[in-house]
Amino acid sequence: MGAYQHILLAVDYSEHGNQVAQRAKNLAEKYQAKLSVIHVLDNIPMPDTGYGTVIPLDKDSGYELLEAEKAKFKLIADQLGAAQANRWMVWGAPKQEIVRLAEREHVDLIVVGSHGRHGLSLLLGSTANSVLHYAGCDVMAIRLLND
């Protein structure tokens, strides 16, 4: 295995998301890799805009839920030092959008959080599990422990 050149962090604003973000940042520093960040909106309705599924982070949408999501995303990406050109917020199914972006941007490592589900939830799958099975690059699932 060679050094990673481009790492993609999938941000979900979970309670333990900071530990996932820190792991991605540490890996990017260790390998001197480009760090990109994606957040996929699948839980708020899409306002009627001409933007398509990619959300411009530098324009005001006038939509309160979207603006709150953009503010959280900007804070995380700023803390990680991710360049503006390496930040994506999109609408869609997380597993599909993460894999699609990774392929388009030639990412060689995707970092996601995983809740380590058991039983029926495991059979139904999670975002981390889906990304692991469909990504064309390495995937690091950071286990999130519930308190």
Strand content: 15-25%
Structural class: alpha/beta
Largest sheet: 5 strands, parallel
Q: What is the typical, i.e. mean, pLDDT?
A: 83
Number of strands: 5
Q: How do the strands of the widest beta sheet line up side by side?
A: 3-2-1-4-5
CATH architecture descriptor name: 3-Layer(aba) Sandwich
> Uncertain segments of ≥5 residues (pLDDT<50)?
119-124
Query: How many helix segments?
Result: 5
Describe the structure concisely for a colleague.
The protein is an alpha/beta fold and about 150 residues long. The protein has helices spanning about 15-30, 65-80, 95-105, 120-125, 125-135; strands spanning about 5-10, 35-40, 85-90, 110-115, 140-145.
Task: Characterize the structure shown.
By secondary structure, this protein is of the alpha/beta class. The protein has one domain (6-143): Rossmann fold. Helices cover 39% and strands 20% of the residues. It has five helices and five strands; from the N terminus they run βαβαβαβααβ. It has a five-stranded parallel β-sheet with strand order 3-2-1-4-5, sandwiched between helices. α2 (64-80) links the parallel β2 (34-41) and β3. α3 packs parallel to α5. 29% of the residues are buried.
